[in-house]
């Protein structure tokens, strides 16, 4: 075994331990909330980390990943799927969780299962065009899932639509070919308690589902607040640092 092989094995072991700890933490939160474990998806956020790490995680049984930068994500996913890791790579699902630029919507629509960060009509239109093109060319075989990002505190600098803007955005998504409305996404502001923000997210989500019964997904909770998110109905937690470790000094 070479030194490089040893380094790769050490990284796999590190990821395995971190993932197991995060999974146990999530399972405990789900149990405490009296929910079923398959009600909450663990999305491993691999932005800034190389394709090799994604491959290692796939080898550990992980299938759901979150990315936030394009074209980094597109290049990485292509590398993962062309690597010699068999059918497991084709089963992997990649969601876009970061801010979307209109000019990159076309390529995002080629690889993303869902986009969690839709907060403007302009982005809905761009993703609809991209999704329809991807469906026409065979780059994708199902509609692109859309989650509307909600601003919990109304600060426009954080991204997200305020609750009053959700009805119009939802109708725009529903009326667009190639898109499927899945639910809502939130990021808890730093100021204030996670409990407060997740309670607010749950209330907004409840009202939203009353109007859109099929859009039941709630993407909420990260490394620091997943317990609060699960307690308030999150169906997807986005965990990066707790699993991946410190961000690399040099990104791809």
UniProtKB/TrEMBL annotation:
Transmembrane segments: none annotated. Pyridoxal 5'-phosphate (PLP)-binding protein, which is involved in PLP homeostasis. HAMAP family: PLP_homeostasis (MF_02087). It comes from the Bacteria. This is Pyridoxal phosphate homeostasis protein. Pfam families: Ala_racemase_N. Signal peptide: none annotated. The keyword Amino-acid biosynthesis does not apply. Residues 39-248 form the Alanine racemase N-terminal domain. The modification N6-(pyridoxal phosphate)lysine is found at residue 47. The keyword Signal does not apply. Keywords: Pyridoxal phosphate. Gene3D superfamilies: Alanine racemase (3.20.20.10). It comes from Gordonia prachuapensis.
